[in-house]
Amino acid sequence: MRIALVAGEASGDILGSTLMQALKARHPDIEFIGVGGPRMQAQGLDSYFPMERLAVMGLVEVLGRLPELLSRRKRLIQTLIEQRPDVFIGIDAPDFNLGVELKLRRAGIKTVHYVSPSVWAWRQKRVLKIREGCDLMLTLFPFEARFYEEKGVPVRFVGHPLADAIPLDADRAAARAALDLPEDSPVVALLPGSRGGEVGKLGALFLDAAERLRSIRPGIRFVLPCASPERRVQVEEMLAGRDLSLRLLDGQSHEALAACDAVLIASGTATLEALLYKRPMVVAYKLAPLTYRILRRLVKSPYVSLPNLLAQRLLVPELIQDAATPDALAQAVSPLLDDGEVQTHGFDVIHRALRQDASSQAADAILQLIGAP
Predict the structure, then answer these.
(1) Which EC numbers does the record give (predicted)?
(2) The pLDDT of residue 60 is above 70
(3) Same domain flag for 57 and 176
(4) Which one, 86, 89, 250, 347, has least CB within 10 Å?
(5) Sheet bearing 187-191, strands edge to edge
């Protein structure tokens, strides 16, 4: 059996690797081809080109990379049509993968899209392309499955692998001991994103907010997990001349979330991880001004962060674009160090709803689609 997968960023690499594990448990001799990161490659994926070439943030920012992306997609489609996999699985990266899926399905190859794009929030007409290009949509969240059912798209809610992997009660004391952090000091985790563009827009802002917090709470400490060596260098340059009790970590975002009391975090997949660790959070984000103006007109959802979308209410503060100032972020985080119970109770309810043994459910749905036992 040959299965093709394409993931475009770190979160997709994680999802792809756990899905591949579940598929191999059912068919040990399976062959994986496509595009993925180090986790998927560790599970046996032969990646045609580096996954990082697909990671682009924002509407305006993608324009400079468009020729390369279109060229890579064209060559990938040709290669996969020649290879004739039993099924193609596009993992997130909808602007890249939906076009691949459409071409492959027309060529007679079964297609699955894993992780719904935000069609329920904006660009809802994409659902027509999804319906034409996808034999099956696998969603991580229940509200997404309801949307697709209403639009006539074959869909299955599988839950989220992180909800399965992260314990319902994370051990803060053990995480602090592992990171050599004191038990009695308040700790705030700073997560300004995993991409260079995100850290460029949010890194200094988060460090400014940390300095404001330190003036409010002199004993406070900070941890900042760096997604890669490149991101660490980027943050180290921003730290020059600052006086902060801050530990930079290489990766270890889950350890940082388990150890902390509250989180200042970029909107994105990491907010789900903070939710699953039951750590109260403040969400911030900044985009290029033109990208933000375009999105503000297009987005139909009242919320941008996953915790609020899942709760269907304003559970966590969202400070977006000009509202995300150092003072505003510090003032929003500070009270959570004393009382974040409203958030954490809501997080627990969501965690239990998402705990569905997602990778096994996704693997079963894919094998059922292609008629494999």
Answers:
(1) 2.4.1.182
(2) no
(3) no
(4) 250
(5) 246-250, 221-226, 187-191, 262-266, 281-285, 318-320
